[in-house]
Amino acid sequence: MDSQYIDHAMVLAGILFCLGLVGVMVRRNLLFMMISIEVMLNAAGLAFIAAGSAWGQPEGQIMFLAVITLGAAEVAVGLGLTLLLFRHHNSVNVDQLNQLRG
Amino acid sequence: MQQLWLIPCLPLVGFLLLVLGHGRCSRSAARLVGVGSVAMAALVTLWVALDFYSPGAAQSYQVELWPWFSAGALEVSFGLYLDGLSLSMLFVITGVGSLIHWYASGYMWQDPDYQRFFAYMNLFVAAMLMLVLADNLVLLFLGWEGVGLCSFLLIGFWHQDPANGYAARKAFVVTRVGDTAFAIGLFLLFRELGTLDLPTIMALAPEQFVMGANRPTLIAALLLAGAVGKSAQLPLHTWLPDAMAGPTPVSALIHAATMVTAGVYLIARTHEVFLQAPDVLLVVAFIGLFTLLISGFTALNQTDIKRVLAYSTMSQIGYMFFALGVGAWNESVFHLMTHALFKALLFMTAGSIILAMHHEQDIRSMGGLRRQLPVPFWCFVIGSACLVALPPTSGFFSKEAILNASWQLPGYGPWLWAGGVLGAFITAIYSFRLLFMVFFGPQKAQPHEPKGWQFHPPLMILAALSLVAGWFVLPTGPVLPASPAGHPPTWTIVVAIAMPLLGIGIAYQVYVRHQWQGLRLAQWPQLRQFLFQGWGFDGLYQRLLLTPFTALALVNRHDIIDGVPKLLIQLSRFLHGLFSQLQNGQLRFYIATLASAAIIVLALALKVL
Amino acid sequence: MQLLGIIISLLGGGVLALLVGRQSASASRWLSLVSLAVASVFYASLWFDTTDPQATSLWLLHMDWPWIARFGIHVLLATDGLSLVLIGLTLVLGYVALLSAWHEINHRCGLFYLNFLFTLAGVVGVFSALDLFLFFVFWEVMLVPMFLIIAIWGHEGRRYAATKFFIYTQASSLLMLAAMVGLVLLNQQQTGVWSFSWFTLTQTDTSGSLGMWLMLGFYVAFLVKLPGLPVHNWLPDAHTQAPTPGSILLAGILLKTGAYGLLRFVWPLFPDAASTFAPIAMGLGVLSVLYAAKLAFAQNDLKRLIAYTSISHMGFVSLGIFAWNHLSLQGTVMQMVGHGLSSAGLFAIAGLLQQRLHTRDLDKMGGLWGQMPKLAALSMLFAVAALGLPGLANFIGEFMVLLGVFQVAPWAASLAALGMILAPVYALIIMQKGFFGASLGTQTVGTTEVLDLNTRELLMLAVLVVGLVLLGFWPNLIFTITAAPVDYLMHLGKGG
After folding, report:
1. C342, C344, C359: which is closest to C423 by C-alpha?
2. Residue B595: which of A21, A27, A102 has the nearest Cβ?
């Protein structure tokens, strides 16, 4: 792949990451926050893939596999927690889930 | 003289028996132990005295019972020292002491705490004997503090009344002021002479000290402060009148005959130091003079029979200080002895009167008692005659000798003499005022005199002794410096005899015949009040020392320094509050801070690169 | 090896007491008593060895095993006369505290006796460890159980008091640790050898400003423990809130570790710095004497009052140590022993009164002499011991301290002597408010009849009385033992 494409891929990954981050910050619904986190993870994965193909190294793809695994685990645990929280508080609004404040 | 150790030991054993057997033995057993131990000490004293007076016997005897403490250069023994001076004191303490114990065994018979009373009394006698027998100043200090403690315990003996407790604490603390000065004097003495052993000090002082130099003057002044506290002299005299809260035998024993004269003993004992400090000796004389005048004037106008006697005691000890100051050392100790006899007599007689009047002490509600109480009356007459120094009672001999010696002091001599004679004049007025108000005039209440073998015999023995003691010769001659030789002019002697008579005449006119009422102080209520309260010393100390101290103590009850840790606690609480604002539990806030921090770190990293 | 015997029998007794305490509280009490008795047997043997006239050395070396060889840390235990006297005091007061705990401590007995015996073991270790690192370990060993004793078995405000105690002592011992490491590094630079041994470190040249800073590290740690102005504030709270046996241990023994540290470490290790600093330390000592006496006078809480008197008395110790001459040091040792006995007595009495009256407030007491003559008489004795009455041990201590201080600093001695005037003011207040005055009505005392001492309590106080009187009349018992060690310390403390 040409080096100019890696710039494009990186910019795309950056945009995706920022979108995810903004989503995490502005969304109050835990479900949407997790979706945004997925977006951020995939942005990172995209960056790895792009970089790996740019330098012809396999590590990029290995890292992407790790990211996917991580994402799956995160979704599994996160969804379970979200379900439990919903059962306890009847809400998935993070602004109401603030019992950990100091 | 090997039996010497028995003398303080016997009352101590008596004390221990009484304490350990508390609640387990009968009243008569307590009496037997309490009185018996002191009486036995008196007998041993006689035995020792026989040895002492036997021809060829040594003039002094020192024995170390055991080494008390030693560290580095300091060697303090637990040892006894007997010479003419301590022997004279032994006579007074054990002799008068056993008579007072005898009397007290009757006086206190009704008291529920009979045994405790005798325990304290025995402990007192033991401590007083240690004081006079000590061969070093630390041991003397032990006796000195010991008698102070017993004085505290006995003044507050009837502890149910808080006023008695207050009087007791006042006595202890005020004398402790003097004791502290005394202790500092000991430190200085040790620094200068390297020893606290009395015979050694007496030998070293004239060699090591330059007469009138700073060191001996300072040491003598500090010792004097100790003596002033214990002997209730100006300015540490305020505790003695209040000390009359104790039972009357206590007043007789501790606050008239023995403990309060300890200051005189101390100065006589350390006379070599005082001789090196002529300025201090002059101060001693003036302290004595002022005390005897001020307390004499105060006694003029007291209404409590025991307080009159208390002020009179201060005044008489003033004479002793006066005598020490003018160089009449032997005369001073002689007056100490005669005063112990007649003042104990007066106090015990007063005790009989108080019992007879059902614990009434106000002389205004007494009167005309001479027919109902003939024995106390005559005893009181004898005691008063001695007190005002009528010839040929014992008081006459001792006071005359003091006045004569004072006349001969170069410089201030005649002034001091005049003051002393004025004091004698006032003494006559207040003693006979007391006598006349109690025993003459209309009878105001029906007395019930306590009779029995515990009441009259001790009084009579003391009365007889007071009369004849003028002819006694104390063995202090070889110990103390002789008083100035020579005779004052005859007219001074005539005046000195005439003034007391004049005083008695005035008292007779005013209080028996009720004439010359213009002389009575009732006309000047403010002056009367001033004198009544002892020249306002109590009020002065109250305002100058007690109130500020108490106020300061109360203001700072919670310890201002505790504010530092409290402040630290406040500070960390505040910081905690500040930082815990960040822990607001808002997940989105955390993420935002995380992200912005990451951006900042990235930006910084880029900039560095 | 006797010393090891003492420490092991205390530690082992503590563990066993915890184990049997689950089944039976009284078994754990008796077990503690037995372990103290075993320790005393070892101590008796130690006493004979130390006071043996044929002994050639000041020191009785008990153990010198390498521990962390890389830094020259050893398990170095040795005793001289000074340690001997203080360990003796520890054991005697151990008995007294145990007797006072007998009926006062009723819950979690096993754990209590574990902490109790561990504290004692820690103190014994502190008095005999001559490896600085080991000293520090024992220093901590004695603090933690004491903290637990206050925090678990204390009175109403125990949490605050225990925390305060812990923070004060812990922060100050951190300073000591830092100073200790600094000293070892300094010694390593000078000699090239790693050593924590006291014998080696006393040879270190500690002149100069570094020495001063290191000295201050030790000084502050010991001053907190002593305690002296201005770091005394933990003590009134800790004493007031601790249970009676805790107060007895604290006042009687733990405070002495501070004094011991000043004697054993500050002067011998840093002679130059200490002598430069001495005027300030003596000034603080005088302030402690007077300021604490004034505070004691104003207290209503009996235990708090006694606590302040302790600070006042420890002021004399601080004064005596920094005068650094034979008289004042001997006096200091005697003052430590005397204060240990008399303050233990006063705290025991406060505990007995609290058990009977359920209050420590002096204003609510009064007239107890009628109801409890024995207790009152003994209180009188301890009160007059505290005010320094001759014939009791405290007087000898105070007198010799002041006598010694006067030789080098007359003004400090004269000012501190003013404490002699303030002492009766506070000591007699106890008697006046508690025992004199009109008898209490039953409504204040409650329905239970106020009882005088029983045999166990009488025995507990009698031990102290005998000690006070014996040492008051026979202080040479101690002075002969401590004379040589004190001379040796002075020789080290004279510096280069």
Report:
1. C342
2. A21
Tell me how far CA of residue B531 lies from CA of B177, B305, B427, in angstroms: 25, 16, 15
Which residues of chain C are modeled with pLDDT < 70?
439-450, 495-496
Query: How high does pLDDT run on average in chain B?
Result: 85
Q: Does B66 touch chain A (CB under 8 A)?
A: no
A30 contacts A83 by C-beta, under 8 angstroms: no
Query: What does the block give as tokens for B137?
Result: 């100043």
So where are chain A's domains? 3-90
pLDDT, average across residues B349-360: 84
Distance (Å, whole) CA C97 – CA B513: 73
pLDDT value, residue A2: 56
Residues B254, B358, B103: CA angle, nearest 5 degrees: 40
Residue B70 sits at φ, ψ, to 5 deg, of -140, 135
State the amino acid at position C61 in one-letter form.
L
Report which DSSP code applies to B481.
P
Q: What pLDDT, on a 0 to 100 scale, did the predictor assign at position B124?
A: 92
Interface test with A, best of B581, B583, B588, B602 (most A CBs within 10 A): B588
Give the whole-angstrom CA distance, residue B563 versus residue B566.
5
Please list every residue in chain B whose beta carbon sits closer than 8 Å to the beta carbon of residue C424: 169, 172-173, 176
Whether the predicted pLDDT of B311 surpasses 70 = yes
pLDDT for B600? 93
pTM assigned to the model: 0.86
- Specify the pLDDT at position A45: 92
The pLDDT of residue C126 is 92
Alpha carbons A7 and B18: distance in angstroms, whole number? 108
Mean pLDDT on B351-355 = 86
Best of B65, B116, B153, B187 to mutate (most C CBs within 10 Å, chain C): B187
Position B22 confidence tier, pLDDT thresholds 50, 70, 90 = confident
* Mean pLDDT of the B442-468 span: 82
Q: How far apart are the C-alpha atoms of C160 and B353, rounded to whole Å?
A: 61
Q: Which residues of A touch B595 (CB under 8 A)?
A: 21, 25
CA separation, residue B185 to residues B219, C33, C323 (Å): 5, 48, 19
Nearest-CA neighbor of C137 among C121, C161, C149? C121
Answer whether A85 touches B (CB < 8 Å).
no
- Residue B521: its pLDDT value, please? 65
pLDDT at B332 over 50: yes
- What per-residue confidence (pLDDT) applies to B157? 86
CB of B580 within 8 Å of any CB in chain A?
yes
| Count of CB atoms situated within 10 Å of the CB of B538 | 16
**Residue A58 at interface with chain B, using a CB cutoff of 8 Å:** no
* pLDDT at position A101: 60
Cross-chain Cβ contact A94/B586 below 8 Å: yes
User: Could you tell me the CA-to-CA distances from B263 to B269, B322, B399, B423 in Å, in that order?
Assistant: 10, 12, 19, 21
Distance CA C250, CA C269 (A): 26
Averaged pLDDT for residues A26-38: 88
Among positive and negative, which fits the CA dihedral C340, C345, C346, C351? positive
Q: What's the topology of domain A3-90?
A: Helix Hairpins (1.10.287)
Question: Residue B94 carries which DSSP code?
Answer: I
Looking at the complex, does the CB of residue C430 fall below 8 Å from at least one CB of chain B?
no
Residue of C391, C250, C245, C200 lying closest to B69 (CA atoms):
C391
- Closest-CA distance, B555 to chain A, in angstroms, reads 39
Residue ranges per structural domain of chain C? 270-496
Q: What is the mean pLDDT of residues B420-436?
A: 88
- Kindly provide the ipTM of the predicted complex, given to two decimals: 0.88
Selecting from A26, A33, A98 the residue whose C-beta is nearest the C-beta of B586 gives A98
Residue B488: CB atoms within 10 A of its CB come to 18
Q: Give the C-alpha separation, B565 to C52, whole Å.
A: 49
